């Protein structure tokens, strides 16, 4: 999962970078591997800073000062296609046509076909294994085909129509065309989220696009709405004619590029990925997690029978993501809620860390126990999801080491039995702890006395609103909204294996290594006086 962000300020002399930079902090939970910002100055020059690491590692004040201009885009990356090399940090850049940069959240399931097409027919050079670079090149190719000295918004929408025809998968993107404007678009099934908001200023309206509404609220953007599946919005910076005619600020254009196919947002955003203070497709993530907790409570009560309260002494959340649901579960079942795992706030999310060994170690570094809350008690530990079982195994063991009598585990998500193909690097089937197992077998495998999973029906009901009642659920069923060929699943598995080897620095003879650095846009000595 990645986080994307675009900002267009009404004030041509304003600086977009500080808010993009801060905004990326609010999206950090969506990607911890790499981060990047590209801004554009008034004369069309692009300024870039990106690389591997968290936001705080990648940007330093001296670099941020060089990212000048009143519009820009930002990205935080959690690699799901390609490798974790520095060169795959986003945004990606192509110089032709016009100078375009793009940031992408999602996965294209026809990446190998697109790569062949770009090579054989479009004759465009792609320098990384990233599907996002493919997407950018497809867009560039379609714009190039218009063969125009200068394009307008209709050309962008036309080019995108062809992009939608060519690419398949889950994608939410922000892009910027040097000197012209920023745009955002979302796949025809709305699998990945994207929201837009506006802010009044004396110069006209500022616009921001982001993966999650939390960024928009943070900076005082109002009237925000989700980009519709298959829709593109383009925000054009004021040109000379606008300025001469007294028009203030940028102009927003929007177009339904292709009809919405099936509106199927990814339910895992609500379960785990998104921040609870975000609203996605009209539903507060916090509210959805309350609903999950309530439904799970009834499931737990049913499982333990009428005297369940004598069998469970404490409901314990696994911080962070499970807190909201665990609290609601405890309140519904009238059981004590106890914060018995304390989280070290300086350790990031463990699930999205690269490599199983580091994930396992990090659980212990991240979570510590309050001994007295476990000693001689029957505890019900609540987590939002059990994926590889790394967290569950460790915490069940920690509870036992702390003297718990019986350790039960409840999961707000149903059994995860299939890979996720739209931008969440869950794991291969065989690494998923629930793959081919019953609940009892999962319990045995993680060392718990019992495991209670949410039913799929209850999860869907927890997230259903007037707007959306259908969701991307492939990780629970193996049936994907866009379909996913066996060839693609094998390709994903192969990539994961290559990446694991690359992390250990052992390459096969014929394997192509990722370039360590980005070769696209070198302008660290940018000269702000040019603007
Ligand atoms: O079964 P696993 O493979 O361990 O994956 C599932 C766990 O990973 C996530 O936590 P994470 O630490 O990533 O983030 P959080 O702090 O937001 O809960 C999730 O909330 C589960 O706790
Ligand atoms: N998690 C994501 O959305 C990743 C985007 C893209 N597929 C990449 O690997 O960079
Ligand atoms: Mg967790």
From TrEMBL:
Primary enzyme class: transferase
Protein name: Amidophosphoribosyltransferase
UniProt-annotated catalytic positions: 2 (nucleophile)
Stored Pfam families: GATase_6, Pribosyltran
SUPFAM superfamilies, per the entry: N-terminal nucleophile aminohydrolases (Ntn hydrolases), PRTase-like
Entry-linked PANTHER family: AMIDOPHOSPHORIBOSYLTRANSFERASE
Catalysed conversion reaction: 5-phospho-beta-D-ribosylamine + L-glutamate + diphosphate = 5-phospho-alpha-D-ribose 1-diphosphate + L-glutamine + H2O
Chain intervals with Polar residues compositional bias: 521-531
The protein's Enzyme Commission number: 2.4.2.14
Keyword Secreted on entry: no
Cofactor needs: Mg(2+)
Coiled coil: none
Cofactor binding summary note: Binds 1 Mg(2+) ion per subunit.
Binding site for Mg(2+): 321, 383-384
UniProt entry tagged with the keyword Cytoplasm: no
